[in-house]
Write a structure and sequence with these properties.
By secondary structure, this protein is an all-alpha fold. It contains nine helices and no strands.
Length: 283
């Protein structure tokens, strides 16, 4: 993160403070002594979204292209879209645990973005083609869907645990309706599957057409750690959704599976880049 240009560094740090403030407010509002603090969550998240968007504008101006080819830019877009999703849903969902979980999820993703932050670099010729932009957008949207699904799964598991302990009053008014959480979890996984399928299909097509110009062969793609883990995630999504729809996989088991998928995707996107290396780079 220290490598970022001064304007981007300043914007990113202030955005981090705003999201950190939102996460703290999310914890405070769980106390019945100050539930009015929840009113601060949406403004804090909105301000953070605006500052992150400015960073992307600066990067687009510097490289004269859509800033979606680098991991840092993709992580920024991920937090922006997830933040917008929270702001939109907060209109109808006012339970305090929902706001807290979403705020902490956004903050964790921003911290991961800080870990992989690098100055803007000029994209390759392949990266500026419309199909590559569609590929990047589809994969970011799939990450947003799994992040949202993870938040709802965590809330469902929390509510289920509280109800089994007969702590009904700690669920009512604090956690969204359990039926809604079950539906939202599956809907998030379904959208993740659809967008990831589209992203993989476009990516495979680009690999077939552009491998030669990029100096790569099929084995470079097939054996790449990031692509292997994304493929494992895709097959896991197929298995989970199929088992839930046709084999009666319980909602609780589906919730735990969602959490595992989320950590798998995070490692595929961030961990592989940091620890394993990948040729899936377009700058």
């Amino acid at each position: 993160m220290l490598q970022l240009p001064a304007p981007e560094m300043a914007l990113f740090m202030v955005a981090g403070l705003l999201y950190g403030g939102a996460a703290v407010v999310g914890l405070i509002q769980l106390s019945a002594r100050w539930q009015a603090s929840g009113r601060l969550l949406v403004p804090l998240v909105c301000l953070g979204i605006c500052l992150e968007s400015l960073i992307l504008v600066f990067r687009a101006a510097s490289i004269k292209a859509i800033p979606l080819t680098g991991l840092f830019e993709s992580m920024l877009v991920l937090t922006i879209v997830l933040g917008l999703l929270y702001v939109f849903l907060s209109i109808g969902i006012r339970q305090v645990w929902f706001g807290s979980i979403m705020a902490w999820t956004i903050l964790v993703l921003l911290v991961l973005a800080a870990v992989v932050a690098k100055p803007a670099t000029v994209p390759t010729k392949v990266a500026v083609t419309p199909w590559m932009v569609f590929h990047a957008i589809a994969m970011v949207l799939s990450s947003v869907a799994i992040a949202f699904s993870t938040a709802t799964a965590a809330l469902y598991l929390l509510g289920d645990h509280k109800l089994k302990e007969r702590k009904v009053m700690s669920v009512l008014g604090y956690v969204p309706n359990m039926e809604w959480l079950r539906h939202a979890n599956k809907l998030g996984l379904t959208y993740c599957f659809v967008t990831m399928t589209a992203g993989l299909a476009i990516g495979i097509g680009l690999a077939v057409m552009e491998s030669a110009s990029m100096g790569m062969i099929w084995s470079d793609w097939i054996l790449d750690p990031k692509i292997v883990l994304i493929a494992v995630t895709w097959f896991s999504l197929v298995a989970i959704l199929s088992l839930h729809s046709f084999a009666g996989l319980s909602d609780k088991a589906m919730g735990y599976a969602t959490l595992l998928l989320f950590f798998l995707i995070l490692f595929a996107v961030v961990g592989v880049t940091l620890f394993c290396g990948t040729k899936h780079v377009f700058t």
